[in-house]
Write a structure and sequence with these properties.
This protein has helices at about 15-25, 70-80, 90-100, 100-110, 125-130, 155-170, 225-240, 270-275, 280-290; strands at about 1-5, 30, 35-40, 45-50, 55, 60-65, 85, 115-120, 140, 150-155, 175-180, 185-195, 195-205, 220, 245-250, 255-260. It has about 300 residues and is α+β, with helices and mostly antiparallel strands. The chain has 3 domains: about 1-95, Rossmann fold; about 115-180, ATP-grasp fold, A domain (Dna Ligase, domain 1, 2-Layer Sandwich), CATH 3.30.1490; about 180-285, D-amino Acid Aminotransferase, Chain A, domain 1 (2-Layer Sandwich), CATH 3.30.470.20. The strands form 4 sheets. Strands 14-13-12-15-16 form a 5-stranded antiparallel sheet, with helices on both faces. A 4-stranded parallel sheet has the order 2-1-6-7, sandwiched between helices. A hairpin with a 6-residue loop joins strand 3 (about 35-40) and strand 4. Helix 1 packs across helix 9 and helix 2 packs antiparallel against helix 3.
């Protein structure tokens, strides 16, 4: 197969591992900088160009699109879909999962466990929103934040009101969520490939840090997940429409609650902690499912 990987940096661990895994299985792989792509949209024959070259004859495309370039990246991915190239994750699913509010609403509608979440636009409603999620302490999140950036733990009512009003003053969209104290600064990342959890890890935040992101000093260890956690991860990925997803959950007293469904999960932490060849599993999925022209949306939506 001829596989394109949309990534801005071929030296990143995840991109490098996907290239290695694909080449080990005899495939031709090309890493393409998403921002150097441009498109011919008006033609009867949709095409993606890269540095003056038409990108033709690819069988599959793997999007490794950073959050900061979601809009443009999704447009390029959608163009590949219109050309009949099989996407590991489709553009509609990618944009759906990147919209934190939309994704939580979709998961909620399907009965997935979530932290109680509030959303408002006016400072006059702040006090009531805080009470809706159970009162302080609360977690305040920027909708556009990634990798733990723009996530604040407000431990008192006054602190919560000040943080929320400050964000609102900057015209930033935010979520207010209940603080799951019993999680102890740890979360579970389940890696879902083709409707199955293929690996899982427990990420523990650094001392004094409630965020468990690995690049913020957190640590990762293999973990045995419960049947309920496994089912929740698979269902969450399916609801988002993602073939490959990293589902982040907290262990609350009333069961697993989903924090986020990541459409471009990093592979370094999960492979290191689990010892599993996740990149190889992703390429195997493409071999099994990646038929030319097999896209559910064909660029629609």
């Amino acid at each position: 197969m001829k596989i394109a990987i949309l990534s801005r940096n071929r030296r990143l661990y995840s991109t490098r591992r996907l290239v290695e895994a694909a080449e080990e299985r005899g495939h031709k792989v090309r890493v393409i900088d998403i921002l150097r792509c441009y498109m011919n949209i008006a033609s009867h024959k949709p095409m993606v160009y890269y540095r003056g070259e038409a990108l033709e004859d690819f069988d599959a495309v793997i999007p490794r699109i950073g959050a900061s370039v979601t809009f443009y990246g999704a447009a390029v991915l959608r163009q590949f879909e219109m050309m009949g190239v099989f996407p590991l994750n489709e553009s509609v699913a990618l944009t759906r999962s990147r919209d934190k509010l939309r994704s939580l609403q979709l998961l909620s509608r399907r009965g997935i466990g979530l932290p109680v979440t509030g959303f408002a636009s006016k400072p006059d409603d702040v006090e009531h929103v805080i009470s809706l999620v159970g009162g302080a302490p609360v977690v305040v999140k920027l909708l556009e934040g990634t990798q733990g950036i723009g996530v604040v733990l407000a431990e008192t009512q006054k602190a919560a009101e000040s943080v929320i009003e400050g964000f609102m003053g900057l015209k930033a969209n935010i979520l207010v969520q209940e603080f799951i104290k019993e999680a102890g600064g740890a979360d579970i990342r389940c890696l879902v490939v083709g409707g199955k959890v293929v690996a899982a890890m427990k990420r523990q935040g650094a001392p004094g840090e409630f965020r468990s992101n690995l690049h913020r000093g957190g640590s990762a260890n293999t973990v045995k997940i419960t049947p309920e956690e496994r089912s929740t991860a698979v269902r969450a990925a399916s609801i988002m429409g993602l073939n490959v997803a990293g589902v982040d959950m907290l262990r609350a007293n009333h069961g697993p609650v989903v924090m986020e469904v990541n459409s471009s999960p990093g592979l370094e932490g999960i492979e290191s902690s689990s010892g599993k060849d996740v990149a190889g599993m992703i390429i195997k999925f493409i071999e099994d499912e990646g038929k030319k022209g097999k896209t559910a949306t064909r660029g629609k939506g």
